[in-house]
Fold these 3 entries.
Entry 1:
Amino acid sequence: MARPVWSGSLTFGLVTLPVRMYTATDSHTIHFHQLQRGTSDRIRHQRVNERTGEEVSADDIVKAFDAGDEYVLVEPEELDDIAPGRSKALEISGFVDLDEVEPIFFDRTYYLGPKGKEYAKVYALLHRALDRSGKAGIATFVMRNREYLVAVKAEDDLLALHTLHWADEVRDPHEEVADLPGKPKITDRELKTAGRLIDALTTDWDPEEYHDTYQESVRKLIAAKRKGETVEKAEQAPESTNVIDLMDALNASLEKTGGKRKSRGKGGTRRSELDRCSKAELYELATEAHVRGRSSMNRADLIKALSA
């Protein structure tokens, strides 16, 4: 069983729920040691006094802020003393619709669990209420001398906590990204073909289908080098599509995918997909599916026939 990375009290209104917070994700990145070339000697980073060159123990190190003409020393306990709720309170200040929180604000995910079986009912009540409402509780708390803005939401059978970026941490894309396209002229034919390509490549979200192929290649490289073997180099990145050849590239892509939507495998998902189509798009799909009597059907009839 994993150890909690933080524990304290989650509050909403006058209700208090003691909780523990656990890391929700893990990294499978391969980590390398540093060696001096030509030897097996490890290179290690040490805390060294830059004036004396001597190593300093962690207990003898204090935090200091550079105020320009002097350093202002700050002890760990002093940071704890000024932390809201002394770093033990997770207070929900309000609830918002999840759709209102833009993806760019989400950072890391943690699991929240009740701090004991006696708090199971309060925990379950908050979970079900959030699940039914489709809302998230917005709160702040302090962990490891840093204050976090977070969203608490229901996921499956537990509460999850997502740390959020503060508003002033999100950069303005128009100041950061060069050569944004503005509004170049795009023809209806190009837009329709691109839409067909997106539809043809649409599939159900299944995270198990995706793998970190780069890490797999790194492992193969390490295994091959241990045996004194070599590995095949990866393919070069494709060249950029020339604007003149854009339609050719789109049509070739459609031809490669078969030019048809992938089967979603779920009736409800298929019906939802059809509901978003215009009558012209539905008629085109009906033509591809050889639906009889399609010329006399209205939009609802086309959806019904294609769903079947």
Entry 2:
Amino acid sequence: MPIIHAIVLGLVQGLSEFLPISSSGHLLLVPWLFGWDDFSGPDGDRIKKTFDVALHLGTFVAVLGYFWSDVVVYVRNGTRLVLSRSRPATVEGRLAWFFVLATIPAAAVGAVLEDTIDSALGTPTIIAISLIVFGVLLGWADRVAGSRGVERFGARDALVVGAAQALALNPGTSRSGITITGARALGFDRDAAARISFVMSLPVIAGAVVFKTYGAVTEGIPSDLLVPMAIGIVTSGLSGWAAVWGTLRLIRTRSFLPFVVYRIALGVLVLFLIAIGFRSG
């Protein structure tokens, strides 16, 4: 893999993981648009998944670093809630377990349907349609007036947003996009919806990285992929941190409309390129 490809894909992963535009969809569309064939051969699919896991490690470190102080508070209070049941439950302690609860639907669906999702979804046509459909849904939900803060995130919210997160297993949906959509539809303000989405990503990304890294290590990582992987991790981490910071600053004064427009425009462009035969769908 050329180093420039690793840098571009690292940037794509870091930015699109936290912007509501679908990282998995972009990681498939970018090589498709440019005609890259870095993972050809009989073992190509496995090697590509290994590289994608490395990029997710970078974004995990980015969001963990950005929300480190919040995570420490959640973990500390969540642990106390279990070990010291006589204590009154703190807001942070309850939130910690609600965030864990919200990860269960996606984890369950992913464990059962991972092979089916990999084989049946992820084509450029499906990604394009998903970008448009879930972009329109994000635009609708963002117009719902909501003033709820993160501290009001409860068990029902966790299940609803968690169920929405399971839809993000389809490339093109966007994990951050669908969870923000769910949170906005439940009446959370934009800042709260984004923070809920980002904190919820921690156990999901961590679980995927641990599970898939184990498989990658046991099956072996090609030596010529080690340097591109390292560069991809650093690039995705830096761009991921910038995406979290930029999104939270943007939504304090703006809506999610720019992301909606981008999703629809990209989806239409991909369908157009398929229709004229520029690339197969």
Entry 3:
Amino acid sequence: MVSKNTICLCFDGTALDAATFYAKTFPNSTVDAVHHAPGDYPAGKQGDVLTVEFTVMGIPCLGLNAGSSFKHAEAFSFQVATDDQAETDRLWNAIVDNGGQENVCGWCKDKWGVSWQISPRILTAAITNPDQAAAKRAFDAMMTMGKIDIAAIEEALGR
């Protein structure tokens, strides 16, 4: 059953592929249900996968195979708080190495066009540091990065 508040992501026939990738890549993620179209529709035929209910890190989502008219944009992203460099590297590399693309400041995009922010907790703490000079050094360091380098953030903080 779909949750009262669910994130709906549109795909061009690949909702099940995306949901399966998310389920195997992120903790607390599952493919919960697959629903087939009861009749033909603009983006598919009767019997095609129409929707996929899935969970990404505890967040209920619905993948809708709506065709190619609806594109993902950076205005929506999943922000993933990581605890260390190993987790940051694992998640970033899983997305990028599976046909995704790197972006700046911890952002990357998966092969379906969904944006992800792989953000180490130390980065968030650093750029919100009450010591404004330290926060600026960490922010300036982040602005030079694709995947976040925790050691470089710590160095910018003077640790």
